[in-house]
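I hope you will forgive my troubling you with a question about protein structure. You will find the record immediately after this paragraph.
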Amino acid sequence: MTVEMGTPTFDPEDVPLAREAALVEADLDGRTVTAVNTGVPHAVAFVDDVDAVDLGAMAPPIRHHEVFPEGANVNLATARDDGGFDQRTFERGVEGETEACGTGALAIAVVASRLGLVTETGDVTVSPPGGDLEIGLREDGTTTLRGPTERVLRGEVPDA
């Protein structure tokens, strides 16, 4: 299934950030982080090996950093030889790691494009623990998210 994900933004008012300039490759608590809003605020950090990082210890100081007045999801990404990225996400609200975060996968692809790690348009594979996701980066700045779907619940809501 493919869904339209809109146009991500690095604008400090839209992320939102407690600063006037975009946060691109800035140091936050010892990590180089880029902030983007892909529907919710995300902080993306590229690391050598996502599995070697203690996400539970590393992410909360960034998630709650004063530069993010509403908090942010924290995404770690590792570039793979095939041009894709491995992903781990510490999600605000959950206050822990999640198996899959579509807006986080989108954030990784968009930040990778901004930093010149991938081409500006085309498909980028991002792989959270829950499975591969294909992020479409379009010329007009809009994005798509494609991945497997599985029904996990069926139910009916009674009339009130």
The chain has a mean pLDDT of 95. The chain has one domain: 2-146. Residues 2-146 form a domain with the Diaminopimelate Epimerase; Chain A, domain 1 fold (CATH 3.10.310.10).
